[in-house]
User: Fold this.
Amino acid sequence: MFELLVASRFLRLQKKVRAIFSTVLISVVGISIGVFSLNIVLAVMLGFQTELSKTIIGASPHILVSAYDGSITEHALAAEKIVKVAGVTGVSPVVYGTGLLVSASGSHGTASTGINPSRHRSAFPSLFSQSRGGVSALEKFHPNAPPIVLGYGLAGSLGVEKGDEITFVSSPDKKDALKKRPKMKTFEVAGVFKYGTAHYDSTISYIKLADAFTFFGKPGPSSFEVAVADPMSSELVAREIEDALGFPFVAQSWQEANSKLFSALRLEKLGLTIFLGFMVFVASLSVVSVLLMIMIEKSRDIAILRAAGASRKQVGNIFVIIGAALGFAGTFFGTATALAVCQLLSNNTTVSGLIPFDPDVYGISKFPVMIEPLYFFVIGVSSQLLCVLVSLYPAYCVRSGNLAAKLKV
Assistant:
């Protein structure tokens, strides 16, 4: 209690000394800016990563099961085993193929997926709720030509709409590229879907599974797209599927399929955290200059305290308390400001709209901000500890100084 009272008195008296008071303000503001910047950057990075994960989950299977040799025999038995794995909510057999779509207005490459509409709807119902027809158009009868559903960007590149006819030119396998001529078939545009990201909307198309068998020359499904109850646990479920099926099957979760992307995001987050962490550290070093200035200014008062019976430890603790108080003030204002700005960015579309963010590229309609209480807590505690640690040096100087000479002056 004695150290706390003296520390508060020392801080109040510094208002009379303009140079020290200005240094105190600069120190608090510097810590606040560092804490604020670190909190904001991590909130935005976490928000972007979360929204990107949602976009990927909505546009791709949670788990993709395929065989090493590229063909799945006894696919009905394999699908039955997959469904029995805990956490699996749906299984859809698919055939993948690539080729060139040609219309009267132009041509564009596509990665096409052959699906059974009813099986795929039960596994991935959100895909069938897209606007402008969506994948659900495959379920309807089309007497003129086999149906195909195009991504929004792909349809725009080809200049086609629902009801138009296009020619699909298949890409032959690499091993048969010189022996076989590419197949050509006319399809009717049954609908247009929109994922919200240019990567998917400009390349993906869907056709019926039966049409894919004949057009791509596949005897059966090439893969299974699997839906799980908790997409975040897809990696664990994928390992259980591999155990259930055995060789030659391999299961790849959506996290594994996009591992390079998420590794780059984690590396970027780590780099920014280290950089801004050094910014907080440098700001906390200004506390040392404040304490040294107070020590010089109050050296005679400190000598009087020692003569009155205060121990070296008590006098040193006074400066540790002052450093902790400065750190708390800076950390509090920085954290409070960061929370307010995060709330403003996440709830106010007008403010977040001032920052350019193309939803067609990222699949995100507003500026991504996610408040993680643990991050704010760790940053606040770390900032406070830094300020206490740097205060130990001035406290050591006070304890080891020869203050008896001050009383002789």
About this structure: The first strand starts at residue 63 and ends at 67.
